[in-house]
Write a structure and sequence with these properties.
Blueprint: H1 5-18, H2 25-35, H3 38-42, H4 46-51, H5 56-63, H6 67-77, E1 82-86, H7 94-97, E2 105-110, E3 119-124, H8 130-145, E4 149-152, H9 158-168, E5 173-176, H10 190-199, E6 201-204, H11 216-227, E7 228-234, H12 241-251, E8 255-259, H13 269-276, E9 280-281, H14 285-292, H15 318-327, H16 334-341, H17 345-357, E10 361-363, E11 369-371
Helix pairs in contact: 8-9, 11-12
Length: 373
C-alpha cells in the first residue's frame, strides 16, 4: 500500500497539530472550533495565533515540527490495517468526542468499523483470584452475545479475561494501549493482540515509538471509560488503576458497576468503596443489561459456556492433541511445551490461546498453563 499525496498531506497536518508539546487537547479543540481544519491553523499567521493566547514556543513548534517523528509515523500509517482516526472523522466515536480533553487523533490497528459498536468496559486487578478471572471471562462472553462489545486495556488479569471472553463469543473487542501502537505491552499478550485486531481494534492516542510509561496509563484509562456506556470493575485494590478508570467514568456521566467480594479480600476493598460512592452492585449480566437497556438496543440471550467436551478431543487437529498430551494437568511453561512438543514458540502461543478460548486450558501465574479438560 502507498497513500496518495492528498491523504499524506492531511495526515501530516493532523500529526503536526497533535505532536506539539504544551498544546493540550482542549486548546486544539478551541483552535479547531475556530479554524475547522489543521491546515487552516498551520497556515495562520503567528501574530493571529499569539493573539488567541498561544505562547511563542507553541507557535514556533507548530511551524517547525519534528520532521523525523512525522515521517516515521506516516511510514507506520502506510499499511492497510493501520489507521489514523481524527476527531473530525465521521466514525470517531461520539461518546469519546463528548469527554473533556478528547484525543484529537487516535492510532489504530485492525477493523475500523468496530468503532461503531456499543462498548462496555471491563477492568480490574492485574493479579486477580481464579473467581475474578472466571467472572470477567463469563461477563464478557455473555455481554458480547447480548449486543455489547468489550473495551479494556490489554493488561494482565481482568483485562486479559475480558478480551478473551469477547473473542470466545466471536465478537470484536477494543484494547486501548498505554503506549504507541507499534508495541504490545505486556509482550506476552502479542498473540492476544493479533487476535483482537482480526475483528476489533488496538487503539492508542500515543504516537508510534512511545514507551509504556507509568503516567501514560491514567490517560489511557480515560479513553477506556470514554468509549463505553458503562464500566464494570471486578476485583480492585483501594488504590489502583481500575479505580482511576471508574472515577473517570463517573466524571464522564457513565454508569459504573462493581462486583462485590469477601470483606476479607483486599481486592474487594476498591469495588466496595465504589459501591459506597453509588456504583451499582452487580451479580449477573442481567443486572447490567437491565440498567443499560434503555440506552442501547441489546438482546438478553440465555447463554451457556461454549467449549469442547472432554470426549471431543479426538476431533482436534493432531498438533493440538500433541500439545495437550504434552501438558498433562500440571502447570507448565511455554518453554517446556516447545521442548516437549517439538513446535515453535510462536505456534505454541497461538495454539494455547485457541485452546484457552475453547475452555481446554487455563493461563496461570508466572506465564504458565494448565490443562483443564
Amino acid at each position: 500500500m502507498h497513500m496518495d499525496m492528498q491523504t499524506e498531506k492531511i495526515y501530516k497536518d493532523w500529526l503536526t497539530l497533535s505532536q506539539v508539546k504544551g498544546l493540550s487537547n482542549s486548546a486544539c479543540h478551541q483552535l479547531l472550533a475556530k479554524f475547522k481544519t489543521p491546515e487552516k491553523i498551520l497556515s495562520c499567521e503567528p501574530d493571529i495565533l499569539l493573539s488567541l493566547g498561544l505562547v511563542e514556543e507553541t507557535v514556533s513548534a507548530l511551524h517547525s515540527p519534528d520532521i523525523a517523528k512525522l515521517d516515521k509515523t506516516l511510514e507506520w500509517l502506510d499499511n492497510s490495517s493501520h489507521h489514523l482516526i481524527t476527531i473530525n472523522d465521521t466514525d470517531y466515536p461520539e461518546l469519546l468526542k463528548q469527554i473533556h480533553s478528547a484525543p484529537i487523533v487516535l492510532f489504530a490497528i485492525g477493523e475500523r468499523q468496530a468503532l461503531a459498536n456499543v462498548y462496555i468496559a471491563i477492568v480490574g486487578s492485574r493479579n486477580p483470584s481464579e473467581s475474578g478471572k472466571k467472572i470477567a471471562n463469563n461477563f464478557a462472553y455473555e455481554l458480547s452475545l447480548s449486543g455489547f462489545s468489550i473495551c479494556s486495556g490489554l493488561a494482565l488479569g481482568i483485562d486479559y479475561q475480558g478480551h478473551l471472553g469477547a473473542l470466545k463469543a466471536n465478537q470484536s473487542t477494543i484494547a486501548v494501549l498505554g503506549n504507541g501502537p507499534d508495541r504490545i505491552y505486556p509482550a506476552k499478550h502479542k498473540t492476544l493482540a493479533s487476535e483482537i485486531a482480526k475483528t476489533g481494534l488496538l487503539l492508542s492516542e500515543f504516537f508510534p515509538g512511545t514507551s509504556p510509561l507509568p503516567y501514560n496509563f491514567p490517560r489511557r484509562n480515560r479513553i477506556i471509560s470514554g468509549l463505553s456506556v458503562g464500566v464494570i470493575v471486578i476485583e480492585a485494590a483501594k488504590k489502583s488503576g481500575s479505580l482511576i478508570t471508574a472515577n473517570f467514568a463517573m466524571e464522564q456521566g457513565r454508569e459504573v458497576f462493581a462486583v462485590p467480594g469477601s470483606i476479607y479480600n483486599p481486592l474487594a476493598r476498591g469495588t466496595h468503596s465504589l459501591i459506597k460512592q453509588g456504583a451499582k452492585l452487580i451479580e449477573t449480566t442481567e443486572d447490567i443489561i437491565e440498567e443499560l437497556s434503555p440506552l442501547v438496543n441489546v438482546v438478553i440471550n440465555s447463554t451457556s459456556q461454549s467449549g469442547l467436551c472432554s470426549d471431543e478431543q479426538s476431533n482436534l487437529d493432531p498438533y493440538y492433541n500433541t500439545l495437550l498430551n504434552s501438558m498433562g494437568y500440571d502447570d507448565v511453561s511455554i518453554d517446556y511445551l516447545v521442548q516437549s512438543s517439538g513446535l515453535t514458540a510462536d505456534v505454541v502461543s497461538s495454539m494455547l490461546l485457541i485452546l484457552e478460548l475453547e475452555g481446554m486450558v487455563e493461563s496461570r501465574h508466572g506465564g504458565k498453563y494448565c490443562r483443564c479438560k
